[in-house]
Write a structure and sequence with these properties.
- 2 copies of one chain form a homodimer.
- Chain A is of the alpha/beta class.
- Chain A has 3 domains: 5-48, lambda repressor-like DNA-binding domains (434 Repressor (Amino-terminal Domain), Orthogonal Bundle), CATH 1.10.260.40; 62-164 and 300-326, 3-Layer(aba) Sandwich (Rossmann fold), CATH 3.40.50.2300; 166-297, Rossmann fold.
- Helices cover 46% and strands 15% of the residues of chain A.
- Chain A has a 6-stranded parallel β-sheet with strand order 2-1-3-4-5-11, sandwiched between helices. The first copy, chain A, has a 4-stranded parallel β-sheet with strand order 7-6-8-9, with helices on both faces. In chain A, strands 10-12 form a two-stranded antiparallel sheet.
- In chain A, α11 links the parallel β8 (251-254) and β9 (276-278).
- Chain A starts with a helix and ends in a 6-residue tail after the last strand.
- The A-B interface holds A 2, 45, 47-52, 54-55, 60, 62, 69, 74-76, 78, 80-82, 84-85, 88-89, 91-92, 97-102, 115, 118-121, 228, 261, 284-285, 288-289 and B 2, 45, 47-52, 54-55, 60, 62, 69, 74-76, 78, 80-82, 84-85, 88-89, 92, 97-102, 115, 118-121, 228, 261, 284-285, 288-289.
- Chain B binds a DNA duplex (30 and 30 nucleotides) through residues 4-6, 14-21, 24, 28-30, 33, 48-58.
Amino acid sequence: MGATINDVAKRAGVSASTVSRVLSDNPRISEETKQRVRKAVEELNYYPNAIARSLANCATKTIGLILNTEAESLKRNPFFIEALTGISIYAQENGYNVMFAFNKSEEEDLNIAMRYVSSRSVDGIILFTSRTNDKCISFLKKKKFPFSVIGRPDEIKGVLWVDNDNFQATYQVTDYLISKGHTAISFIGGPLGHNVSKDRLEGFKRAMSIHGVPLEKTFLFENGDFSDDFGYECMMKIISAWEAGQNKPTAVVTCDDMQALGVLKAMQEKGLSDIAVTGFNNTPLGMYQSPKLTSVDVNADKLGFYAAKVLIDFIERKEATTHYIVPTNLVERESAF
Amino acid sequence: MGATINDVAKRAGVSASTVSRVLSDNPRISEETKQRVRKAVEELNYYPNAIARSLANCATKTIGLILNTEAESLKRNPFFIEALTGISIYAQENGYNVMFAFNKSEEEDLNIAMRYVSSRSVDGIILFTSRTNDKCISFLKKKKFPFSVIGRPDEIKGVLWVDNDNFQATYQVTDYLISKGHTAISFIGGPLGHNVSKDRLEGFKRAMSIHGVPLEKTFLFENGDFSDDFGYECMMKIISAWEAGQNKPTAVVTCDDMQALGVLKAMQEKGLSDIAVTGFNNTPLGMYQSPKLTSVDVNADKLGFYAAKVLIDFIERKEATTHYIVPTNLVERESAF
DNA sequence: TAAATATGTGCAAACGATTGTATTTTGGCA
DNA sequence: TGCCAAAATACAATCGTTTGCACATATTTA
């Protein structure tokens, strides 16, 4: 069906090697032959066979993605799809294809990674993971196979990664609230097993201490999860304590829009609306909430874009950048006043 | 770095062809040699090179996805990510890789399709599209390149496709509302350029006529778009008409959760809560709405799964099924009573 | 005018598998 | 012992490129 390099060679009256050199615009071929060959390419509608090319080059020009469906937020959070588009953009710009596989466990993640590297079907791998002590990371490191990670890994030495500055993100949110006059601020955190959570917690604490705002122990939920249930639960505790005579916060900083929804739900049930709430991740869920949620946009598309960039640039030995910090931005809406 | 088939052959004291035959479990090789070869494979930790294999087989064992970011619902609707997981599952089960590319226009879609087929880097393509008169479809048809479509194409002859039964979906919704006693039902549709919209409209109409429920012209918004704005607009018209003395519907059938949100918003603004509303697509946005949205789940993961199945089965000449209809299911929540 | 240097192309060996065909080995039987 | 068929394995071509090196021709220099 498709024409091969030999067909082109024959038609142009040259050898296959010459055709190959014309295609890579090798200066050793005369302009005249180049014209002739290009005409033949045109006429035969010739496209190089990617597979044969890969075999000869020992490069597949494709990168593999390892995604995990364990993450419950997969559906709710547009993070993944945005990151995928970002990856796709940089990859396409540089002539790379992108492969993916969704896995259900760390075991499967590892299997796919092993298959990718041992069958040499990709030139590099992007890991969507924030597991501490990730098996894929150690495997790929040992194999010295090019890879990049979305989310800062435990041990950053010799690994390519991109991440938000999660510290700065909550710092900014907290600073914002303080600048609005809030002085009793609650914080609802995520699982401390993840670096994200630790950083966000620290950002909050730092902003508070810098501004000399006192940290109330009962307002602080350091170790939790990203669910609406957890947000609801925390807020209920706060409200109960208040009803029992304790202080009431005037603002709540959360680490996920879901948590914020939980907080809002608790407030609604108790008929409260005088507490400012901020979310995280800027999901549609927050956008269409009432009040519309002030939230932190993590720019997932940029995360994907730069994850692809560090990886591909590394593969092509273009640049020595090992990581990118993608800034977050605070999206001001109605819930934080 | 990795061992090749020749290394294995040498170590097992046989030829490369024998190793190849052992790997494909060819009965012409004696059990004894098989043992020996397998031991060598084990010891050298040998994995076949996927590229070389592809070149020899004229099969890449990968399928390409053509996705479009034009669709604004990309972020809001978990449709895509769910469909991707479904595709990934069937592909992995059958030893296929999946490649994707996000494009910004039909032109780009076509470019990618052309690149995929002419560089022979995939064995088949899955199209995420519902454009009428899609250029990719006609291109792939002309090239006789294997592909499947998510969403029923205009001309189904000789094309593999999967879709929901959109007719049946709105029929069921309407039937459900009628069974609850509703007799004044409004319908808010999507763009009639898409088959989905036509089918949903027909399903509604049929259910109404079968049950002998009169169709009120002013309740019918046949040609619209899937936005919340459109839903809001329609509902406002209805309410204004009612305020001007016309009838008021007791229920509204929409074609998208976003439309339903718009409807709900209009109702809230007007202090109305006695009208039942149904959504479509069962997005998180609807789930966390108040009232929780009764909606239609399209089982996007299954759509993806079967799109991969028809395609891969066709490529491997396993089965002659040309399409699947994936049933939708009505998710009953609070908004339709 | 011969030698030295550019300049442009072709040859052939990779890349790492698969597979049709040829060849060797084995075993049975006369 | 010799012959033949069957069983097991090896050989070599092939898939479609790329690329180092050799070779031929054109151009300059002594």
